[in-house]
Amino acid sequence: MAEEPSYYTDNPFQILRQKRHEADERRRAAFEAKYGPTRILGVRPPAGRDLKDRWEMALRHRDNLRRLSVRLLIAQDNRCYLCGDPFGATRPATRDHVFPQALGGRDRHNILMAHQPCNNAKGERAPTRDELAYLRAVNVAMANDEVAPRVFRCAAE
Predict the structure, then answer these.
(1) For residue range 106-144, what is the model confidence (pLDDT) as tens digits?
(2) Residue 143 — φ and ψ, nearest 5°?
(3) pLDDT of residue 150
(4) What is the pTM of this model?
(5) What does the alpha-carbon distance between residue 154 and residue 8 come to, in Å, rounded to a whole number?
(6) Count of domains in the chain?
(7) What pLDDT score does 55 carry?
(8) How many CB atoms lie within 10 A of CB 83?
């Protein structure tokens, strides 16, 4: 039986945060072992007041985006939701807002991974019913640490 790791604190919130971080690292390692390294484009630091605050905010923002991106790649089985082709070093992954930000899509439950050319070609158009159904399936799969079932190809229609 696996022994529970010891933590340096008695604060339950810090222990929970560390357990989540360890789980994210295990997911990332398993993903890279299965698919190899995948480039993810588009991580920019947010604006802050002074340089130190801005740097700390940028690091937190970058780590959160990386964790979200890895979880999305796992849930999407390392495939672009628009064309269905796998991601790789030559065709990097970008985060795409299914509902464009111009149409009010701003939360993290509105993001799927897509190739950069696919993402650019989609532009600011509204999502199709199939894309919304797949977004819902990916969000459910991420909540259960599974791979979302893909029963259609969005780009083929």
Answers:
(1) 787 888 999 999 989 988 888 888 888 888 888 888 877
(2) -65, -30
(3) 60
(4) 0.61
(5) 48
(6) 1
(7) 61
(8) 17
Q: Is the pLDDT of residue 7 over 70?
A: no
* 152 part of a folded domain: no
Q: Does a structural domain hold residue 3? A: no
* 3-state SS, one letter per residue, for 103-135: HCCCCHHHEEEEEHHHHHHHCCCCCCHHHHHHH
What is the domain extent for residue 31? 14-143
Question: Do residues 29 and 36 touch, judged by C-beta distance below 8 A?
Answer: no
Q: Could you please report the per-residue DSSP string of 18-81?
A: HHHHHHHHHHHHHHHHHH----EE---PPP-SSHHHHHHHHHHHHHHHHHHHHHHHHHTTTB-T
Q: Are 113 and 93 in contact (CB under 8 A)?
A: yes
Long-range contacts of 29-32 (CB under 8 A, 24+ apart): 30/74, 31/70, 31/73, 31/74, 31/78
pLDDT digits (tens, 9 = 90+) for 24-64: 778 778 777 777 766 666 545 445 456 556 666 667 777 77
Which of 121, 95, 124 minimizes the C-alpha distance to 110?
Answer: 95
- Residue 2 in any domain: the answer is no
Q: For residue 67, what pLDDT is reported?
A: 82
Structural element, H or E, at residue 85: none
Per the CB < 8 A criterion, the answer to whether 68 and 111 are in contact is yes
